[in-house]
Automatic annotation (TrEMBL):
PANTHER family: SHORT CHAIN DEHYDROGENASE (PTHR43976), SHORT-CHAIN DEHYDROGENASE_REDUCTASE FAMILY PROTEIN (PTHR43976:SF16). It holds the Pfam family adh_short. It comes from the Bacteria. One of its GO terms (molecular function) is oxidoreductase activity. Belongs to the short-chain dehydrogenases/reductases (SDR) family. It comes from Sphingopyxis flava. Keywords: Oxidoreductase. InterPro entries: NAD(P)-bd_dom_sf, Sc_DH/Rdtase_CS, SDR_fam, SDR_oxidoreductase. Transmembrane segments: none annotated. CDD domains: 17beta-HSD-like_SDR_c. This is Short-chain dehydrogenase.
Length: 276
């Protein structure tokens, strides 16, 4: 039986590849884009089963309308993929409040708005998967990407809490945490308007060129990433989080070991705060 997908950000990258594979499986996809040319390109993939809607996920009212329309087009949203996102390069002190908030508006609140709009329909049908595309930066804070990491860490917490809240309704929620993949995202990362010379020799600045030079040379194959997502969606149970990519897997493993060591080392101090 075919499924109905709503995917935000289908003009390129993971969102586009997921949509293409879903269409090849005979499913129907409503995808969001921000430009009319991308809407035309997307609908040309499969006339009738690929439907594009132009919307900026930071526009909550319009996004709500698109989600409700998608429910009518699809006869209910079986799978919601929150994929739309933007990067922002800059050490925390260099990033203005406006830039920081804008990063969160797209990467966090765009996801929040899409879920909020889709959830009532899924809950009433007692059926639906919500897949949030996170990042390894949501598990490991990366210097130079403090705003982006903030948003992705928030997605991690949202996913974990939401999964527990909606499990009684038969809904499943998962966050995908990719490492470095050749999606073109690295080359599209915006750079903060302010530059503070004192940060020139810091880890955040040294990674600036890496994000752009590294783009298209990452170890991860985006098609295999999409295959992994499609495979796990067919499983009877979803994990809360799916870490994809050998490099990020090993980095997270190292972090967890250090986290466990620190907990044990400071255990006495942690326990000391209990009431007598």
């Amino acid at each position: 039986m075919s499924k109905g997908w709503l995917i935000t950000g289908v003009s390129s990258g993971i969102g586009r590849l997921l949509a293409e594979q879903a269409l090849l499986r005979g499913d129907r996809v409503v995808g969001t884009v921000r430009q009319s040319v991308h809407a035309e390109e997307f609908e040309a993939l499969c006339e009738g089963r690929a439907v594009a809607r132009i919307v900026d996920v930071t526009d909550e009212a319009n996004l709500n309308a698109v989600v409700l329309e998608a429910e009518k087009i699809l006869g209910g949203i079986d799978i919601l993929i929150n994929n739309a996102g933007v990067g922002l390069d800059g050490s925390f002190e260099e990033i203005t409040s406006l830039e920081f908030r804008a990063c969160l508006e797209t990467n966090l609140f765009g996801t929040v708005s899409a879920i909020r709009a889709a959830l009532p329909g899924m809950r009433n049908r007692l059926k639906g998967d919500i897949i949030n595309i996170g990042s390894g930066a949501g598990l490991i804070g990366l210097p130079g990407l403090s705003a982006y990491s903030t948003a992705k860490f928030a997605i991690e917490g949202l996913t974990e809490a939401l999964a527990a809240e909606v499990r009684p309704f038969g809904l499943r929620v998962m966050v995908v945490e990719p490492g470095g993949f050749r999606t073109g995202f690295g080359g599209s990362i915006a750079i903060a308007a302010n530059t503070i010379e004192a940060y020139d020799a810091t880890p955040g600045r040294s990674k600036r060129d890496i994000w752009h030079d590294y783009d298209a040379n990452q170890p991860g194959d985006p098609k295999k990433l999409v295959d992994a997502i499609l495979k796990i969606i067919e499983e009877p149970e979803l994990p809360i989080r799916l870490i994809v990519g050998k490099h990020i897997y090993n980095l997270v493993d190292q972090k967890l070991k250090k986290f466990s060591q620190d907990m044990e080392y400071y255990k006495d101090i942690s326990y000391s705060a209990e009431s007598d």
